[in-house]
Amino acid sequence: YTRVWIPDPSEVWKAAEIIRDFKEGEPELLLRLEDDTTLAYPVGPKGKPLPFLRNPDILVGENDLTALSYLHEPAVLHNLRVRFLEPNHIYTYCGIVLVAINPYDQLHIYGEEVIRAYSGQNMGDMDPHIFAVAEEAYKQMG
């Protein structure tokens, strides 16, 4: 079954599976939502565009968004959410860009021990962190 993301007014994006083969020109997709309810999802000229494809489970929580098979709004938001819900994973790379989500809480990820751990490392060798970006910038200055 093909896994997709569909727009949702309360959750923004909702995960679903296509449970019946779709043929070009059909007016709807038959979907199963994560709560096991089925939904006839209108597509085509009178309906909505085809939904975005979901990434394989093995890529969920990836620390670099560019590693995702499908890079679109629902995939990015879901991946950031999964990482953010893990302890101390407020940073995610998107290539050479560091994405940070403010946890509105004090985290113990900035101490002297963490600075030493990132010192001398290449960006991407360790989990995404502002210290990795700083180390890379420092190396590039020399």
Overview of this structure, please?
With 142 residues, the chain is of the alpha+beta class. It has two domains: 2-53, Roll (SH3 type barrels), CATH 2.30.30; 57-141, no CATH class. The protein contains three helices and seven strands; from the N terminus they run E-E-E-E-E-H-E-E-H-H. The longest helix is centred in the middle third of the chain and has 13 residues, at 73-85. The termini are far apart. The mean pLDDT is 95.
Biggest pleated sheet:
5 strands, antiparallel
Number of helices: 3
Structural class comes to: alpha+beta
Q: Spell the H/E element sequence.
A: EEEEEHEEHH
Report the radius of gyration as a whole number of Å.
20 Å
Poorly predicted runs:
none
Percent strand equals 15-25%
Shape summary: elongated
How many strand segments?
A: 7
**Rounded mean pLDDT score:** 95
Can you list the strand order of the major beta sheet? 4-3-2-1-5
- The amount of helix comes to 10-25%
Integer count of domains:
2
The rounded distance between the terminal residues' Cα atoms is: 52 Å
